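Hey there, shall we discuss this one?
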Amino acid sequence: MLTFRNLVRISRPRFWMYTLWPVLIAFATSWWAEQYVFLYRPRTSAGFLLFAFVLFFVLFPSNLLIYWVNDIADYETDVNNKRKKWYEHLLPEKFQWMLAQTIIFRNGSSLLILSCFLRYLSTTEWFIFHKATLWAYLWFIFFATSYSLPPIRAKSIPFVDGLFNILYILPWVAVYIALVWFDSLNVSYVLAWWLRCIAMHAYSAIPDIEPDSTVWITTTAVFLWKKWTLLYCGALWTMAAFLVEWPLGIYAYLFWAVYMFLLFLSWYGDVSRVYKVFPRVNAVIGFFLFWYIIWYG
């Protein structure tokens, strides 16, 4: 039976912060923007409801879609992958169609509720947010599905697989555009977060090098193998640190040093063990960035 607990496990709660923190930071940066196009005030009921709904959406329905598609497409290889059994979740084949119906219903109803809620706002505000959300969500679906499914199946194309991880920052871009507008969107921040996502994806694929290579799935990690993948990740995190040097200053290089230390441990140790530390590290960094932006802009 496909219970709510099963749905939560399939959505990988330990990875929820990868979609959560970009959106929280989008709300935080909009606080300091000079221009406001959309209603956002933490003391207003409309602003609070929007904030709560968006957080729920990026936490559960969106992650459920991402990992369901991945589980469906890679089921034949995942059954032989030990990490899928003891660290992540392996979806039984008999529940796959049932889960598909659940995901379609939850994602569709979430967008419908959001549209109905925003319809009570002024026409201009509703149109701006609705348009930004719609396009971001359509691209989100495209990247989430095309990453694992043919005809693109970006997962098996070296370096392209990482580029498709832009889906994790699309909710952030949509929220920021809706709350502030296009003119204030800092491309350097978007690029830095994208580079961070690409690096995290390449690193997370290192423990799967052997099972992926045996079934001819050529991820970036399979193409480069362990040490060159670690160097690739280090280069991406270094570029990301340079891009956010202003306004983070010394903190950008402090975060960079943490990632470099974890790469050092991975170079001489077991990547699978260090990999389990990353969700906690990313959660702490996201928490710090959110409050840093709130207090200091």
Q: What stands out?
A: Residues 4-296 form one domain. The chain has one domain: 4-296. DSSP finds 17 helices and no strands in the chain.
